[in-house]
Design brief:
There is one protein chain. The protein is mainly beta and about 375 residues long. It has a single domain, classed as Tachylectin-2, Chain A. It is built from 4 helices and 26 strands. Strands 12, 15, 16, 17 and 18 form a 5-stranded antiparallel beta sheet that branches. Strands 19, 20, 21, 22 and 23 form a 5-stranded antiparallel beta sheet that branches. A hairpin with a 3-residue loop joins strand 25 and strand 26. It is globular and about 50 Å long. The N terminus is likely disordered.
Length: about 375
């Protein structure tokens, strides 16, 4: 057995201890810097897909007597996707789009006490009927709900009516999430009454598990649109006015919108060439009013020729943008890439392939729950602790 001088052993131990402490301090500084970066960055991240349980909702066999067809249909047996959510009395409620075999969409209601397992109501709660709105909603149906409430607890739903040719942004209200009163098209000005419109995301405050529509400089604001994201304002969440630029500018617009002189419309979030959102941008859940600004989770569609070459043609991904809390048309910051993309078989293949489409967000049981449609066919969830 070898014996080292006592002094040499002491020197080696001190050197080791010094290196160990320096390494610990370095790790602590790195951790502190990372924590500071996380605290300073404006994004609501990270979200982790719950792959062990996804998709959390799939098509079912519930039946309902369609008042227009006069016959019983399996109203959600083709696809379920693109949900909105709200928390009430410690229960998470989901309003989701469901399609029957003929392709007609209706909005169903489900509830959960854990954010994952949902019990569905047997009949849809919003659907085409023999009413004054049938001209907008039949035969395509009622699509893609987004949900906020006011300070008194009244719920305001934006949804898309599809008549088979045109999509129009519509409004409905409820006091209990089960019974809805339709209010008709969101934009009633003659200039925009017939214009393709959808995807209304009302700026809201997320607090005490509620999503409460909140005014900015005395007015409510809503992001809308599915080519660019435009703006509308309202004094009461019912009467909405499309915002326009002070000076109309000339830009190359998609032919779907060109006849409506959309160069006048105030664009809040444009598409970006060379990126995942080059072809289309569309609002996600209700925009979140924070101290740092207005945080909007949005969906982007890719065009391989002019966008992200690593993504398949037409891929929908999810990203975030931060806008000025005093001027919702002014972008402060924007993520350079997406934080969610199709990765699982049920996200790759379905009614529309390669789609992750976020539409429902809630703070529930001390977690953020982001609900999204997968390939326009099923519903999945991602969670941020």
């Amino acid at each position: 057995m070898l014996h080292f001088p006592r002094l040499l052993i002491s020197f080696c131990f001190c050197s080791y201890l010094t290196c160990f402490l320096l390494a610990c301090n370095t790790d602590q500084r790195k951790a502190s810097a990372n924590n500071q970066d996380s605290a300073q960055q404006p994004w609501l991240l990270p979200f982790v897909k719950q792959d062990a349980v996804n998709p959390i909702m799939q098509p079912g066999n519930l039946t309902f007597k369609c008042p227009i067809r006069g016959m019983t249909v399996k109203w959600e047996n083709k696809n379920v996707y693109n949900p909105a959510v709200a928390v009430k009395n410690d229960t998470l409620f989901m309003l989701y789009r469901a399609q029957d075999s003929a392709g007609c969409s209706r909005i169903g209601l489900a509830k959960s006490t854990d954010g994952i397992h949902f019990t569905r109501e047997p009949s849809p709660v919003l659907y085409p009927d023999n009413d004054q709105y049938k001209v907008y909603e039949w035969p395509g149906g009622c699509e893609d709900p987004r949900l906020a409430e006011d300070s008194a607890g009244n719920y305001y739903l934006t949804y898309t009516a599809f008549d088979g040719k045109f999509a129009r942004l519509m409004l409905a209200t409820s006091t209990d999430l089960y019974h809805w009163k339709k209010l008709g098209p969101a934009f009633k000005e003659e200039e925009y009454a017939a214009m393709w419109s959808k995807s209304g995301s009302i700026i809201s405050t997320y607090a005490n598990n509620r999503i409460v529509a909140s005014k900015v400089n005395g007015s409510y604001y809503m992001f809308w649109g599915d080519k660019y994201i435009w703006l509308a304002s309202s004094p009461d969440l019912i009467h909405w006015t499309v915002l326009q630029n002070d000076n109309a500018h000339s830009t190359d617009y998609d032919s779907l919108y060109s006849k409506y002189n959309v160069s006048k419309l105030k664009i809040a979030v444009p598409t970006r060439k060379g990126k995942f959102d080059c072809d289309l941008v569309e609002s996600g859940p209700p925009a979140m009013l924070t101290d740092k600004g207005i945080l909007l989770i949005y969906n982007g569609r890719n065009n391989s020729a002019t966008g992200d070459t690593s993504l398949p043609e037409g891929t929908y991904t999810v990203s975030q943008v931060l806008l000025d809390k005093d001027d919702p048309s002014k972008i402060i910051d924007r993520m350079n890439t997406y934080f969610m993309k199709p990765e699982q078989p049920y996200e790759f293949s379905g009614e529309v392939n390669n789609v992750c489409f976020a539409e429902g967000l809630a703070f529930y049981k001390n977690k953020w729950w982001l609900y999204y449609g997968t390939a326009d066919s099923k519903i999945a969830v991602a969670v941020k602790n």
